[in-house]
Amino acid sequence: MAKTQRTTVLLQRRKKYIRKRISGTEARPRLCVTRSLKHIYAQLIDDNTGTTLASASSMSLKIAGGNIEAAKAVGKALGENAGGKSITTATFDRGGRLYHGRVKALADAAREAGLQF
Question: What are the two backbone dihedrals, phi and then psi, of residue 99, each rounded to the nearest 5 degrees?
Fold first, then answer.
């Protein structure tokens, strides 16, 4: 098995393990973080109805590069969007990724913008 295949399989396994235990409600939605090489995305999801309550991404903010500064901007924008819809608490879903680097920067910026998780 190629190395990239192996890492993808392990990532999918971690995502499945996390999603068995984490779910979002309307009162406490799930903050789902997805990152790629170029961009980072964040959504507040109500899993009971399957709707996205708020979202932000480096693409929607027209930020070039998937770096830590972009992650901070996305976290701040998501916190402001959530505050406008009176969402104050969330459950953090890191998507199988380590809580490090861009994922941590997004989470810290969302906390500073008013989200609690």
Answer: -80, 80
pLDDT tens-place values along the chain, 117 residues long:
788 899 999 999 999 999 999 989 889 999 999 999 999 999 999 999 999 999 999 999 999 878 999 999 999 999 999 999 999 999 999 999 999 999 999 999 999 999 998
Assigned token pair, 116: 């609690």
Q: Which strands, in side-by-side order, build the sheet including 91-93?
A: 51-57, 40-46, 30-35, 91-93
Fold of 3-112: Nucleotidyltransferase; domain 5 (3.30.420)
In a 10 Å sphere around its CB, with 0-12 CB exposed, 13-18 middle and 19+ buried, how is residue 18 labelled? middle
Say what the pTM is: 0.90
Please state the domain extents for the chain. 3-112
